[in-house]
Amino acid sequence: MVEDIATGVLNGAVAAGARAIRWLDDRDPRGAAVVRRIFSATGRAQIVGVTGPPGAGKSTVTDMLVAEMRRRRLRVGVVAIDPSSPFTGGAILGDRVRMARHALDSGVFIRSLGTRGQAGGLSRSTHDACLILDAMGYDIVIVETVGVGQDEIDVVNLAHTTIIVGVPGLGDEVQAVKAGLMEAGEIFVINKADRDGYEATRRQYELMLHLRETSRMARTDNWPVPLLRAVASAGEGGADIVDAILAHRVALDAAGAFARRSGLREREQTLALLRDRLVRRALTTAGETVLAEVEARRIDPYSAVEKLLAHIDEEDCPS
Ligand SMILES: Nc1nc2c(ncn2[C@@H]2O[C@H](COP(=O)(O)OP(=O)(O)O)[C@@H](O)[C@H]2O)c(=O)[nH]1
Ligand SMILES: [Mg+2]
Asked: Which residues lie closer than 8 Å to 176 by C-beta, 6 or more apart?
């Protein structure tokens, strides 16, 4: 079964890909077995994060990018992070309607991931989904964030290329972009350029990007960060954004940074998996007792950790 699914993934079969992603999201051990099989075929897809505040038009921009990439015969996968929907393989209604026009196109594969309340679990599932889509042969994998909290920062660590989507008319919108994101963004898009306040917002972003240049915070060397205009709802601006995405890949490759970023991502994933396993092992029945003790304030947190670790060590070397 695992063998069939792995082969299917490598052949780009949609049903196999969906199954593998489901297993991984469910923490089913068969998911890990598939990853072992397909890993050597990964490392090719360019992972593109699309982030920005809710309502900025990330889904609409993503949809426009998919259309433009398809026009260029690029195969594209989309991972939409959506905390509200269980991972059923469907997207929230709005996204589903919008993305529906790609539904019959075999060069497009769209999944949505729900957090299902797992703190810190989302980035791990997202990474896994990206690996599967990469192995399926998609040239580009777009990860659309919700645009709140940690998920924005997580996507930066995951993506080769991060696109920040802003909109006019949010007042101090530029300041609202989190500091880490401002430094990490490689392509800035002001969407809803049909709205009032576009010019003022563009000037704010220009100033910010200028300050960023002079303080040399940029992540990619020799990459003049583009500031692009879009009216995604009217399909305007997609070609320029795709040009920038492809140019950024060229810049990354030239600097040897593409492979380096992919490697850092695997390192992060490894640490995340390790943390997960260690915590789970420490929190066996005995672990829960220790937690209960600390919750009752009978022991302090430091002593509790010592006890939990001792518990793991015992398991490691039974004598
Ligand atoms: N006026 C205008 N509305 C847009 C544009 N792009 C998206 N929208 C609308 O903005 C709303 C939020 O878009 P959505 O893509 O769901 O935003 P997300 O939450 O960032 O994914 C939707 O009603 C879109 O139709 C645009 O360029 N101009
Ligand atoms: Mg959205």
From this structure: 53, 170
